[in-house]
Amino acid sequence: MTQVAQPRPANKRAQISAPTFRTDNWRLSPILTVLGLAGFVGYATFRSFQQDHYWVELYHYLTPFYSPCLSATCEPGSAVFGTLPWAFPWFMPFAAATLPFLLLFRLTCYYYRKAYYRAIWQAPTACAVREPHRSYSGETRFPLLGQNLHRYFFWIAGAIAVLNTYDALVALFHGHNGGFGIGLGNLILLANVVLLWCYTLSCHSCRHAFGGRLRSFSRHPVRYWMWTQISRLNTRHMQFAWITLGSLVLTDLYVALLSSGVITDLRFFN
Amino acid sequence: MSKASFRIWRGDAGEGRLVDYTVEVNEGEVVLDVLHRLQATQAPDLAVRWNCKAGKCGSCSVEINGRPRLACMTRMNLFGPDDVITVTPIRTFPVIRDLVTDVSYNYTKARQIPSFTPDPRVKPGEMRMRQVDVERSQEFRKCIECFLCNTVCHVIRDHEENTEHFSGPRYLMRVAELEMHPEDTADRRMIAQDDFGLGYCNITKCCTEVCPEHIKITDNALIPLKERVASRRYDPVVWLGSKIGRRPAKDTPKVPNT
Amino acid sequence: MSTPADQQPGPSPAGAEGDGAAAAPVARHRYDVVVIGAGGAGLRAAIEAREQGKKTAVISKSLFGKAHTVMAEGGAAAAMGNVNARDNWQVHFRDTIRGGKFLNNPRMAELHAKEAPDRVWELEHWGALFDRTADGRISQRNFGGHEYPRLAHVGDRTGLEMIRTLQQRIVALQQADAERLGDPDAMLRVYAETTVTELLKDGERIAGAFGYVRETGEFVVFEAPAVVLATGGIGKSFKVTSNSWEYTGDGHALALRAGATLLNMEFVQFHPTGMVWPPSVKGILVTESVRGDGGVLRNSEGKRFMFDYVPEVFRGQYAETEEEADRWYTDPDNNRRPPELLPRDEVARSINAEVKAGRGSPHGGVFLDVSTRMPAEEIRRRLPSMHHQFKELADVDITAEPMEVGPTCHYVMGGVEVDPDTTAATVPGLFAAGEVAGGMHGSNRLGGNSLSDLLVFGRRAGLGAASYVDGLGEDRPRVGEADLDAARATALAPLERTGGESPYLLHQELQQTMNDLVGIIRRADEMKQALDSLDKLKERVAHVSAQGARPYNPGWHLALDLRNMLLVSIGTAMAALERQESRGGHTRDDFPEMSPEWRTTTLVLRADPAGEQVTLGRRPLERMRDDLLALFERSELAKYLTEAELAELPEGERP
After folding, report:
1. Would you call C245 and B51 a contact, using CB atoms and an 8 Å cutoff?
2. Is the minimum CB–CB distance between A3 and chain C shorter than 8 Å?
């Protein structure tokens, strides 16, 4: 009876069987995403459980995959907070206290959600391409309701980023002959930490917490300033998400190669 | 002047087929110009909805080569000389005839959102708002209501059964706009989740990709709204706070009988 | 509040879908007030009528919220004094009258200037988010003809903000009805994509409106004692226009056929620089600030032709060499302005002459060039939206090549003759507001006065219609069955006819005729030729045939619109031929001067009920009250008024 408000019952959607009429290569992006994510997950899994080649004693280089090192078998000096009294079994990464949270931070990240919902879950594979699922409930039910806890993982990830920063800074004071020194490893550790901060601070939950949740900015000039800066980073959240996957692998690989003696560190000073 | 090959969906009440046309194209034209030429020369009753023809009213939403777009802003030089251009009605809404669809879903959803609610003590002309405070909502008010975002959203596009419980990016953005309005006093966070279906959104960003006004729907409206809803509903610290008597929640209900 | 109309006794079936005549079922709806048009004026009128307790319908030719109002960019003029505290309604009034060359209805200009601020604040109270001043009030911008910064705005999309706010206000009222009465449409309903083809009368009084629903092609009757016309302008009768699809002069034609009068129809505002290429964007405005910032006009020979077109009256005020003109941009005190910055009608006339002389650009305009005038970076900084507009729509990089521009039909100052306070037309029960109403803007509208006009007179139309309905009591007009049958037959005719011409081709011919012969520059012989052509077109339009069935058939709809466009075009051409002077939006090549005698004369159009015969009459312009006259210097008045009028001026203090 309401012409404006209700569809006429006779009207149905246009019956079109083709899943899409897109003529561009819409499969490419999800394939690249799957390859990128799978590559990282494969590498990270292998390294996390390897329990070796994570520490360069001479320069105090610690890979972020092992920080903080908590097993009693951790190499001396690599455990910043000391270790637990027992040796970790083979299925337990030495950084068992942080890795799960980093994983959860990225799993619940608004960008990665988009990436894996599209590329892996295929909901949807690409815009305006019919998805393969019979029904869809999105993030309305358990376990995906848990995505709402992203803000907590953000705070934990922030704390872990502090730790990584500490690791990178400490290494600066372990030059070849003791004292201050800089090598390529230091630069890689520092660059990685800077990128990790960029990724962490560009988080949407961070943007909300530091200012986005306010109704009035003019009454909170400092938080408005912070929100503005975070918003600028936030527009590149996706880029940082991918760049940090790369920088983590690169950092870890460099430390592993040094630690296993395959290469030696390029030193610029001491 | 050159010729272009078009395949246009023609039909009504859901039944129809793609019809091939060969039509003249002049330099600098857009798809809507070609549709108009078809009307004038070959298909006088070809139904297409349009109005301003300048990308400002959002009437001529169709799907061109599978992508939801405004026909008046899709230039013909986007396509190669040998391309066959497929034009279909937007798939998410019931078709009325040819390229015209019944978009009443959108108007129904618009009515369910509690309207702007200023403090009753503030009289017209007394509001004082800073530019920095209105800018967020102003971005969302650039919306021309072409409904391309609602069309492309897989939540309803691929799952018609969700239409009842999901208002689509356009109207979730409207909720966000009101929640960020500096003079609004209502709290729509609970109904955003329960009635307007914010939880269905899996932030896959197709709405942002198709927006002809380049509104950052996902980053600036939907995700901030999700964060606000998380604060209201899913944040244990906030929940604990409300249990010990801090800030009793005053949730604005959905408008009844809409 | 009053009783909804549905509950009042009447012979016709009350409420919704009743059974019409056997031939084609007609849905019937009963309302207190029916508003035709869902742009700014229509929505504001509907809001007011509903708030007065009247059961109200809004009939929209397009979808709800798509009206031409969304195209308005600059802002809404209202003397709030937020940016310059010296602004007030008297200054706004004076600017408006000057802009209209003293032909405005003074009472309308007065009401407009006085009430505009309240109407803008009201929008803000309904959720509109205008740009702000530093202290948090509504910001106001400068505009041509306005003495102080006066336009409330939101970037360059003020019209969109306004239509959306009014749309959302209607939704808010519907929500209140949903809560209270259980049905959001109970007291205020929007009929989207519904077109009124005929007004219905009972004797002398308006009894309702007849139309069709686009989606189904079915007919619908609105029985209502009060009808508000808010249908906008007539731009679609011209080939090159900045107007949208709906602007087919429906309200003007409906009013004429219902026995109401139109005035000032010869005044049509053309903007000198609209895009001419590509076809898809022909008519879209190119802002005047392109020329203000150094852009120059050139013909196909590369010549800055405007130096040849400085008219006698302006000689001495404009530069005579390119060197002097170029120096003006940096040193305006010691040099004269470049002739590209002559008044709009002069520039438009010159462009027209160049094109007619065969020195136009490939697509029938002239070149507007900034690319050779300043560095690319500066163009992008100073003209960002123009840069974007040409890049996106025309593939033209204005930093590297010139734009092609030509005059474009923009706004009609003329319209339905109304009472300023109630917006009542000369037919009882008929009201008009917005562009379809005449008088407010005189011979030329100032930028920014359109959006405020919609609000001020939209509200007054709602009030006027509501109080008219109150005054009727039980004595309501009734729709006659014979009128319905006639309206139905007229509407179906193009569809049932075979072998007639295509409405699309007839429309193109009409547009070409009006564009070429009753366009920006007018001559008696051309307009006589136009009237001849229109007369022949009338025959052909009477036999137009539309193919296809009734649901959503654009060919059929255009065939019905054609009738209105043709009627209004004939009226416009007649009035333009009659007025032998140049003033504002009416430029006569054969009568280039403004004449004080002609100022006192208003041209009035009438038509017979079938819209077959249009007649032209004259009426004296309403005299401005003394207190309003006192706002002007006598020396200024002397430029416009006749000797006799000047002699009558009261002596006394001048501000």
Report:
1. yes
2. yes
